[in-house]
Amino acid sequence: MITKKLGEVAVMCGGALTHDHDYDIQVNGVFTDSRKLVFGRLFVPLVGEKFDGHAFAAAALQGGASGVLWQRDRGLPPEGPVILVEDTLAALQAMAKAYLAEVGCRVVGITGSNGKTTTKDMIYSLLETSFKVHKTGGNFNNHIGLPLTILEMPADTEIAVLEMGMSGRHEIESLSAIANPEVAVITNIGEAHLLQLGSRHEIARAKLEIVSGMKPGGVLVYNGDEPLIPLVLDEQDTVKPEGLKTFAFGMDQGKNNDYPTGMMFHNKGVIFTTHLHPEAGLELPLLGQHNVINCLAALAVADYFGIGKEKIREGLSGLHLTGMRIEPITAPSGLTVLNDAYNASPLAMKAAIDVLDGLNGHRHKIAVLGDMLELGPKEFEFHAEVGEYAADGKVDMLYTFGTLSAEMAKAAQLKRPELPVYHFDDKKELVSHLCKQVHPKDVVLIKASRGMKLEEIVDALVKEDLHN
User: Fold this and answer.
1) What does pTM read for this prediction?
2) Is the dihedral of CA 98, 103, 107, 113 positive or negative?
3) Residues 219, 242: Cα–Cα separation, whole Å
4) Residue 82 pairs with which residues in a beta bridge?
């Protein structure tokens, strides 16, 4: 993490000490949540629509913070070690950018509509076999999370793997300007954030902002199955670094991609080969073809950094993913639960349903699907499309939860009238009904947008003592 004198931090963030005698106070990291005070860290009070962290600055100092940032327009600062700045968020970002430059590590930036976090975890696992690597923790991928991730980075880090998320235009542009990546990865362009951006073309433009802050001569690794990416890359308004190189991956063999040449699925993962890795199969301990595609991106990054074949195998075997992303759980009852409750979009929903469909050795394949949020004017159409997809012989039973998912249930029932379909607006009622239906030899997929909190259904199923 950042370890500096308070006066040095003031220079890094473009601020000024209220008292020169505080220059030598030691700062060991930063924090923005006053409820999670860590002794010796610098408190950064952020300002939002419904909160102002400056209200807690004095308490943070009394509780052991080494100092605080203070926005000049917020009145008189508290007594104690204070750095005055024009904007606390901008100061936090400037501090992170300066610290990243000082550490001098190489940066891999990752964005995309789906698969960002999984791809980040894969890249980290492959690179850490040969380098000291730091990565985004959890989902710390926005204008606050990314600088905090950087400032937590050990000073001897050789490569930083940073996830970049967004909800609108110019957000990834600002993140890329902070991180200045040498390598950028775009996993795909989906339908998430259609509500804010209006079209997939505009989503592609938002994702391509990642190249705007790249180092000259950097490499963009992108999903070659998506025609919008090269289209937007060639647009006159797309800001690109000098000498930008590109590398494509995907399923389509006709687009100069690295592509899978063979895939053998089993209940714990997949063994596969690729056009550029034709050697004896690589074993990925994850379910689903979509994760093979994510792995192609990770392999491209590993190749760029010179990771050898044996180290690649080692990295894949030791892969650990951030939770709730098609996480297989075997309950004490014997029931298999696929916990994919972290996020959802039409593309990701279909991929998860395909994973469920491909699993063998189970009595019934049951999907519990909730609302997909932020899809814009076509949200009902997208939900109906997923319902039809699930009903096309891929599941034995379908449960839906939420207002939008009622369209899923209707479409599935129309597509396949004999399919058992149950819709609920009450989560407890859904759990009660589901627990009476499931058998210890069944497999249940749980997926929805994060706001639906379907992990509560996962917890209930895992705890349930099934006697069917």
Assistant:
1) 0.86
2) negative
3) 11
4) 68
